[in-house]
Amino acid sequence: MTQETADSSYSPENWNLYWRVMVSALYHQKRERFLDGADRASQAVGVLGGAAAFAQILGNVSYGWVPAGVVAIVSAAALCYGPGAKARIHGGLARSFKQLHARIMLADDPAPPEVIKQFNSEILIMEADEPAALRCLVRQCENELSEAFGMDDDVRPMHWWDRLWMNVVDLDPSRRAKPPGAPEVSQDAERPNH
Known about the structure:
The protein is mainly alpha-helical. Helices cover 66% and strands 0% of the residues.
Protein backbone atom coordinates (compact mmCIF):
# COMPACT_ATOMS: atom_id res chain seq x y z
CA MET A 1 0.00 0.00 0.00
CA THR A 2 1.45 3.32 -1.01
CA GLN A 3 1.56 5.68 1.92
CA GLU A 4 2.08 8.84 -0.04
CA THR A 5 0.82 11.98 1.58
CA ALA A 6 -2.83 12.44 0.69
CA ASP A 7 -2.73 16.05 1.81
CA SER A 8 0.39 18.06 1.02
CA SER A 9 0.14 19.77 4.42
CA TYR A 10 1.60 16.65 6.12
CA SER A 11 5.26 15.71 6.03
CA PRO A 12 5.93 12.17 4.78
CA GLU A 13 7.23 11.12 8.21
CA ASN A 14 4.11 12.30 10.02
CA TRP A 15 1.83 10.91 7.30
CA ASN A 16 3.40 7.45 7.65
CA LEU A 17 2.66 7.54 11.39
CA TYR A 18 -0.91 8.72 10.78
CA TRP A 19 -1.44 5.98 8.22
CA ARG A 20 -0.17 3.19 10.50
CA VAL A 21 -2.30 4.21 13.45
CA MET A 22 -5.40 4.85 11.32
CA VAL A 23 -5.20 1.41 9.68
CA SER A 24 -4.61 -0.25 13.05
CA ALA A 25 -7.43 1.60 14.80
CA LEU A 26 -9.90 0.82 11.99
CA TYR A 27 -8.81 -2.83 11.92
CA HIS A 28 -9.36 -3.26 15.65
CA GLN A 29 -12.71 -1.47 15.53
CA LYS A 30 -13.87 -3.86 12.82
CA ARG A 31 -12.64 -6.89 14.77
CA GLU A 32 -14.34 -5.65 17.94
CA ARG A 33 -17.62 -5.11 16.10
CA PHE A 34 -17.54 -8.53 14.44
CA LEU A 35 -16.54 -10.45 17.57
CA ASP A 36 -19.07 -8.65 19.74
CA GLY A 37 -21.78 -9.52 17.21
CA ALA A 38 -20.66 -13.16 17.17
CA ASP A 39 -20.76 -13.25 20.97
CA ARG A 40 -24.24 -11.77 21.11
CA ALA A 41 -25.48 -14.14 18.39
CA SER A 42 -24.14 -17.19 20.25
CA GLN A 43 -25.78 -15.99 23.46
CA ALA A 44 -29.09 -15.49 21.64
CA VAL A 45 -28.90 -18.99 20.13
CA GLY A 46 -28.11 -20.39 23.56
CA VAL A 47 -31.05 -18.67 25.25
CA LEU A 48 -33.57 -19.36 22.48
CA GLY A 49 -32.33 -22.89 21.94
CA GLY A 50 -32.40 -23.63 25.64
CA ALA A 51 -35.99 -22.45 25.88
CA ALA A 52 -36.94 -24.47 22.81
CA ALA A 53 -35.17 -27.56 24.14
CA PHE A 54 -36.93 -27.26 27.46
CA ALA A 55 -40.32 -26.85 25.78
CA GLN A 56 -39.68 -29.73 23.40
CA ILE A 57 -38.47 -32.03 26.14
CA LEU A 58 -41.66 -31.39 28.06
CA GLY A 59 -43.78 -31.95 24.94
CA ASN A 60 -41.98 -34.74 23.07
CA VAL A 61 -39.07 -36.50 24.68
CA SER A 62 -38.01 -38.36 21.52
CA TYR A 63 -36.88 -35.21 19.65
CA GLY A 64 -35.69 -33.08 22.56
CA TRP A 65 -32.06 -33.87 21.73
CA VAL A 66 -32.10 -31.74 18.53
CA PRO A 67 -32.38 -28.24 20.06
CA ALA A 68 -30.37 -29.39 23.07
CA GLY A 69 -27.57 -30.52 20.73
CA VAL A 70 -27.62 -27.21 18.85
CA VAL A 71 -27.41 -25.29 22.12
CA ALA A 72 -24.56 -27.48 23.34
CA ILE A 73 -22.54 -27.06 20.12
CA VAL A 74 -23.03 -23.28 19.89
CA SER A 75 -22.35 -22.76 23.59
CA ALA A 76 -19.23 -24.93 23.51
CA ALA A 77 -17.91 -23.09 20.44
CA ALA A 78 -18.54 -19.71 22.08
CA LEU A 79 -16.89 -20.87 25.30
CA CYS A 80 -13.80 -22.24 23.54
CA TYR A 81 -13.37 -19.40 21.05
CA GLY A 82 -14.31 -16.62 23.48
CA PRO A 83 -15.50 -13.91 21.07
CA GLY A 84 -16.54 -11.59 23.90
CA ALA A 85 -13.08 -11.54 25.47
CA LYS A 86 -11.44 -11.11 22.06
CA ALA A 87 -13.78 -8.21 21.29
CA ARG A 88 -12.68 -6.45 24.48
CA ILE A 89 -9.00 -6.93 23.54
CA HIS A 90 -9.56 -5.39 20.11
CA GLY A 91 -11.60 -2.57 21.62
CA GLY A 92 -8.74 -1.70 23.97
CA LEU A 93 -6.22 -1.77 21.11
CA ALA A 94 -8.44 0.47 18.97
CA ARG A 95 -8.64 3.00 21.82
CA SER A 96 -4.87 2.89 22.31
CA PHE A 97 -4.20 3.53 18.61
CA LYS A 98 -6.68 6.42 18.56
CA GLN A 99 -5.05 7.96 21.63
CA LEU A 100 -1.66 7.68 19.94
CA HIS A 101 -3.12 9.23 16.79
CA ALA A 102 -4.28 12.20 18.88
CA ARG A 103 -0.78 12.60 20.36
CA ILE A 104 0.79 12.42 16.89
CA MET A 105 -1.55 15.17 15.70
CA LEU A 106 -0.26 17.41 18.49
CA ALA A 107 3.37 16.88 17.45
CA ASP A 108 5.20 19.34 15.24
CA ASP A 109 4.99 18.71 11.51
CA PRO A 110 7.51 17.68 10.42
CA ALA A 111 8.24 16.01 13.72
CA PRO A 112 11.87 15.85 14.85
CA PRO A 113 13.55 12.46 14.30
CA GLU A 114 13.58 11.64 18.03
CA VAL A 115 9.81 12.23 18.23
CA ILE A 116 9.23 10.01 15.18
CA LYS A 117 11.35 7.31 16.84
CA GLN A 118 9.32 7.63 20.05
CA PHE A 119 6.00 7.27 18.20
CA ASN A 120 7.31 4.29 16.20
CA SER A 121 8.43 2.71 19.46
CA GLU A 122 4.95 3.16 20.96
CA ILE A 123 3.37 1.61 17.86
CA LEU A 124 5.68 -1.40 18.10
CA ILE A 125 4.86 -1.85 21.80
CA MET A 126 1.13 -1.81 21.04
CA GLU A 127 1.58 -4.19 18.09
CA ALA A 128 3.36 -6.64 20.41
CA ASP A 129 0.04 -7.13 22.25
CA GLU A 130 -1.95 -7.65 19.06
CA PRO A 131 -3.36 -11.01 18.07
CA ALA A 132 -2.27 -12.20 14.62
CA ALA A 133 -3.70 -9.94 11.91
CA LEU A 134 -6.20 -11.14 9.32
CA ARG A 135 -4.58 -10.02 6.06
CA CYS A 136 -7.76 -9.57 4.02
CA LEU A 137 -9.26 -7.42 6.77
CA VAL A 138 -6.08 -5.32 6.84
CA ARG A 139 -6.35 -4.82 3.08
CA GLN A 140 -10.03 -3.85 3.43
CA CYS A 141 -9.09 -1.24 6.05
CA GLU A 142 -6.33 0.14 3.79
CA ASN A 143 -8.77 0.29 0.88
CA GLU A 144 -11.40 2.14 2.92
CA LEU A 145 -8.87 4.69 4.15
CA SER A 146 -7.42 5.13 0.65
CA GLU A 147 -10.91 5.87 -0.68
CA ALA A 148 -11.65 8.22 2.21
CA PHE A 149 -8.50 10.23 1.48
CA GLY A 150 -9.06 10.25 -2.28
CA MET A 151 -6.11 7.95 -3.01
CA ASP A 152 -8.09 5.81 -5.45
CA ASP A 153 -4.93 4.53 -7.17
CA ASP A 154 -3.98 2.75 -3.93
CA VAL A 155 -7.24 0.77 -3.70
CA ARG A 156 -6.54 -2.90 -4.40
CA PRO A 157 -9.71 -4.83 -5.33
CA MET A 158 -10.55 -7.89 -3.29
CA HIS A 159 -12.37 -11.07 -4.26
CA TRP A 160 -15.90 -11.46 -2.94
CA TRP A 161 -14.71 -14.64 -1.19
CA ASP A 162 -12.04 -12.68 0.68
CA ARG A 163 -14.54 -10.04 1.77
CA LEU A 164 -16.98 -12.72 2.92
CA TRP A 165 -14.46 -14.52 5.14
CA MET A 166 -12.11 -11.64 6.10
CA ASN A 167 -13.31 -11.60 9.73
CA VAL A 168 -13.29 -15.36 10.19
CA VAL A 169 -10.09 -16.85 8.74
CA ASP A 170 -6.74 -15.49 7.62
CA LEU A 171 -6.68 -15.59 3.83
CA ASP A 172 -3.83 -14.33 1.68
CA PRO A 173 -5.28 -11.53 -0.47
CA SER A 174 -2.46 -11.86 -2.99
CA ARG A 175 -2.91 -15.58 -3.69
CA ARG A 176 -4.56 -14.93 -7.07
CA ALA A 177 -3.33 -12.81 -9.92
CA LYS A 178 -6.35 -10.49 -9.97
CA PRO A 179 -10.00 -10.48 -8.92
CA PRO A 180 -12.65 -10.88 -11.61
CA GLY A 181 -13.38 -7.56 -13.28
CA ALA A 182 -10.16 -5.91 -12.08
CA PRO A 183 -8.14 -3.98 -14.65
CA GLU A 184 -5.08 -5.64 -16.15
CA VAL A 185 -1.75 -4.72 -14.54
CA SER A 186 1.47 -4.99 -16.48
CA GLN A 187 4.12 -7.33 -15.08
CA ASP A 188 6.68 -4.50 -14.93
CA ALA A 189 4.42 -2.45 -12.65
CA GLU A 190 4.48 -5.15 -9.96
CA ARG A 191 8.24 -5.71 -9.85
CA PRO A 192 10.22 -3.67 -7.33
CA ASN A 193 13.11 -1.65 -8.68
CA HIS A 194 16.44 -2.91 -7.37
